[in-house]
Amino acid sequence: MCLGIPMKIVAVDPAGTGTVELDGVRHAVDLTLIETPKSGDHVIVHAGFAIERLDPAEADARIELFRSLAESRERDGDGG
Amino acid sequence: MTTPDRILLAHGGGGRLTAALIADEIVPRFGAGPLASLPDAARLPGMAGGLVFTTDSYVVQPAVFPGGDIGALAVHGTVNDLAVSGAEPRWISLAMILEEGLPLATLRRVLDSIRAAADACGVAVATGDTKVVPHGQCDGLYINTAGLGEPIPGYRLSADAIRPGDAVLASGTLGDHGMAVLCARERLQVASGPVSDTGTIHRLVRAATPWAASVRFMRDPTRGGAAAVLNEIAGGRPFGIALREDALPFAPAARSVAETLGIDLLHVPSEGRMLAVVAPDAADAILAAWRALPEGAGSTRIGAVTAGPAGAVVMETLIGGRRLVDMPLGELLPRIC
Amino acid sequence: MKYVDAFRDPAAARALAGRIREAAAPLAGRSRPVQIMEVCGSHTMAIGRYGIRGLLPPHLRLISGPGCPVCVTDAGYIDAALELASRGVEICTFGDLINVPGSDTSLAAARSRGAAVTVCYSPLEAVERARRDPAREVVFLAVGFETTVAPVVSLVDRAAAEGLGNLSLLTAFKLVPPALEALAAAPDLAIDAFLCPAHVSAIIGADAYRPFAGRHRRPCVVAGFEPLDILYGIEGILRQLDAGEARVENQYSRVVTAAGNRRAQALIERLLRPVDAIWRGLGPVPASGLGLRPEFAAYDAENRHGLRVGPGRDAPGCRCGDVISGRLTPPECPLFGRRCTPASPVGPCMVSSEGSCAAWYKYGRIATERP
Fold first, then answer.
1. Between B and C, how many residue pairs show a Cβ–Cβ distance under 8 A?
2. Predicted ipTM of the assembly
3. CA–CA gap between residue C20 and residue B239 (Å, rounded)
């Protein structure tokens, strides 16, 4: 199970709650499961709770890997 | 589980249970006349010049939502049902059921909004009725509107006229209305969320009149969303419909919330959009005519009619796979799985 | 959508599908297809939603495992929730459970007869309901795997902090690693590798699968829920099989760490303890569930309302158990698409949108054809 979508933290309240944003839409979120959440962090949101951080460096590296796989495939003339 | 012996919320969702309820309880009793093909609006036989007739009830909660309110909706929905039947909307009735204790300010806002929407659509409120029920017997206010319109010459609409190769068009982003209402209703604490698309499409129908003979079928994707409309078109007929996921028009806000809640936007209602199946050689001209109007600015081709698989709506997914686009079940449920 | 759309890129998907075909080629001569179990229902959903099966070579099969908490929740649990509703308790639940059949009926049907059943997106909505009317008992249906456990069980802290005496949890939490063990113990199970869940792993950490992978010599690859994640995960599994390896590989490294979310683990540890649990399909599995610790019994709906979740009666002919354990594909069940459809589900796998049968019904009938 476990639908979870990456969203960006845009506000952190002292009570352990905060606001996250995805494509302009802002949601109230519970941040108590995240160690020292900060505005600008990306988190996975599940059932109104941030359940873990997303590491942008790891994400970008994977996106870059996929991009290079796609490019080398197309260069080799095998569209799949 | 056997067939439920009570009305469930999902019976009102425009999906499989709604279809079953109508097929089992309505058609056997009333299906002999103009109701037979379950049109959005009926062409009445024996009237000089022809008359097109429709009715719809509005129970949306909350009565005021981002982008509109129940009053605007009650005009738009009925006008749109006439329009997609190839008619020019003329007159509507207005029947209201009000709950004891409803703030007069709310009623005024809704009535003003009905007035503005009717003026914008060029329809007149010709007759009406008001009832008040004790507190607790309805949720604020419910509205019913019936509509009468005149057939626009040239339109001969029937899903049976659809042929493989025909183009499937959408007049704009899909599912905004349903997501806006869901966000307002489900205590989701969403800000800058989806905005309802409630509005009229009768000018789009008018704009397509030069190619009316090439328009096979039109419908507004309300309850059950585009998936329900397309399945109703293809169901039991000797052709299929193929959608391209990368061509589907969705607004960023609606998409953002739908991904969060695990909801398929193809199942979500719009209240100011239409889907049309048209002959392939007329598709570009109709799209150009629609795009020239503000309410059609987001018009696009979302798919095509195929020889098979018969009766099915299939989508080529973003990554090049294929999947079935099924009839929604009914109730839109936020899910965590 | 940042960090979402990039993982749905069509050109990269084509490239990965090609790499999967290459990696699968050396395995084509085996006597039976390569069988990969996606443990998690969200993987099952994504595989259906994106038509991933149609991109794979014919000798590669994806088997849907027990990773849908709704599907593995015993009918007796729904019966207990219905019993509470009939006593006038307000039931708060995720939308996923509303149509699940108990032994006789569902929460949706009970609601149509006047039961107070509220669908919640977040468990915190149950706190609001309890706050609104302190005289009314509110019970949250606490189902879910590791991902959902911490958000739900945090209700106990909220209720304690606010002094809410009318909120309790009917727990049926389930744990993934013990279920994997129970699956692997079955002598007739022919699973070559496991695609491990994304967000469960975010909580428990990728290292949680090490003992399992070592003991049973099966590759375990943690993958995200986006289509490129799934394709890349499958490729990783095939490369391990080609090389005769059986390692834990964490391909969802943008979210999952080796050790998992320690704050969530600490919360779970403080409030909950392992309990034996009944899984539809697997039967009783020792220490595969979580229940509230005795010191929090006031928030345990079974204790508070004096009822016990007993075993339910599954519908006659229902083969959900065999589907969950990978012995049957959904269309091989005699009820599938005939007596059992999403509009009138017989078993839980047809109810939950991520249930194997519902996903197959919604997406699969065409998606299994190759383009």
1. 146
2. 0.95
3. 34
In chain B, the domains with their CATH numbers are: 41-151 (3.30.1330.10), 159-324 (3.90.650.10)
Q: What is the DSSP letter of C312?
A: P
Cβ atoms of residues C323 and C329 within 8 Å: yes
Number of domains in chain A: 1
pLDDT digits (tens, 9 = 90+) for A16-53: 999 999 999 999 999 999 999 999 999 999 999 999 99
* C309 part of a folded domain: no
Cβ–Cβ below 8 Å for A79 and C14: yes
CA-nearest residue of chain B to A6? B260
Q: C touches which chains (3+ CB pairs under 8 A)?
A: A, B
Q: Which residues of A fall within a CB distance of 8 Å from B66?
A: none
The CA distance from C365 to the nearest CA of chain B, in Å, is 7
* Whole-prediction pTM: 0.91
Closest Cβ–Cβ partner in A54, A72, A73 for C3: A54
Rounded distance between C-alpha atoms, residue C264 and residue C175, angstroms:
14
What's the burial of C311, exposed, middle or buried (CB within 10 Å: 0-12/13-18/19+)? Answer: middle
Give the position of tokens 């570009």. Answer: B284
Per the domain annotation, does C140 fall within a domain?
yes
On chain A, the residues whose CB falls within 8 A of the CB of B320 are: 80
Q: Residues B130-157: pLDDT tens digits?
A: 999 999 888 899 999 999 999 999 999 9
Same domain, C99 and C227: no
